[in-house]
């Protein structure tokens, strides 16, 4: 019998509301291991189970765990570069934004394919990649009808692509293909619907991004200053209700300001937008955490220095996109 401590593959990377979390946040010390044992810096103990999945625990001098471990300068720099690329793609030619979300589709689907392959799921990458890019183009230039049509055709082709591999594992692979299609290309396509809105599409996409980021910032500081009560300890053990309250406050303030000042709408509509986005962003974060726990991985990829994979950075934005589009379409 193996007597070595077995690391938990479901360790959580994200600290409460941390907008720049990279997958090396606070975790629990494995049973039977010393918090100040050898093998890592600052008292980190990386037990080995024969795989590349290890849990690293950082401790304060007094013995308590700390919420750190990431390269903060690299994380901030990567975030600035990403934000700058998005803004440059929005102004003055919003059509360039299609290239940004198309690149995200190509990178994100490859991250998903590698991640789910560990669970025995094989994605039909060629039709998903081609169809995912087509969905971005159709959403921007053709509107909702073309977008839905491109999504349906991509789903049909992806399901048909898998037929040649036979019946064994078909349901498993089909479910994985449809999840990947909806989780990334479809949700990203709603960003194109936002920016393609006549007259104020550029302002709408900026408002959406600002409100969603405010959720992370508000939750991060509230969680650090007052976080006590765990929100979803089984899924995301570092999330607290106090951090969630900070996210709600940050989103509602940002929503009221952006809708009134940028879109010329009523402040109450911005408050509704903020409330809807914070719920969607929180759910999006928990969904990605649960996907990684089920697959036994810590990060979806290593695309961005200090951030992990691309999907690790846009998890909240993905789920919040369609919610923001619906709220702004109906109320502003």
From TrEMBL:
What residue spans carry the region label Disordered? 1-64
Q: What is its main location?
A: membrane
GO cellular component annotations of the record? plasma membrane
Give a yes or no for keyword Membrane in this entry. yes
Q: Carries keyword Nucleotidyltransferase?
A: yes
Q: Which GO terms describe its biological process?
A: CDP-diacylglycerol biosynthetic process
Topology of the protein relative to the lipid bilayer: Multi-pass membrane protein
What UniProt keywords are attached to this protein's entry? Answer: Cell membrane, Lipid biosynthesis, Lipid metabolism, Membrane, Nucleotidyltransferase, Phospholipid biosynthesis, Phospholipid metabolism, Transferase, Transmembrane, Transmembrane helix
Give the catalysed reaction(s), semicolon-separated: a 1,2-diacyl-sn-glycero-3-phosphate + CTP + H(+) = a CDP-1,2-diacyl-sn-glycerol + diphosphate
Stretches that traverse the bilayer: 72-90, 120-139, 145-163, 175-193, 205-223, 244-263, 269-290
- Pathway involvement? Lipid metabolism; Phospholipid metabolism; CDP-diacylglycerol biosynthesis; CDP-diacylglycerol from sn-glycerol 3-phosphate: step 3/3
Q: Which GO terms describe its molecular function?
A: phosphatidate cytidylyltransferase activity
A Pfam family assignment? CTP_transf_1
Its subcellular locations are: Cell membrane
Q: What is its EC number?
A: 2.7.7.41
* Entry similarity comment: Belongs to the CDS family.
Q: What is this protein called?
A: Phosphatidate cytidylyltransferase
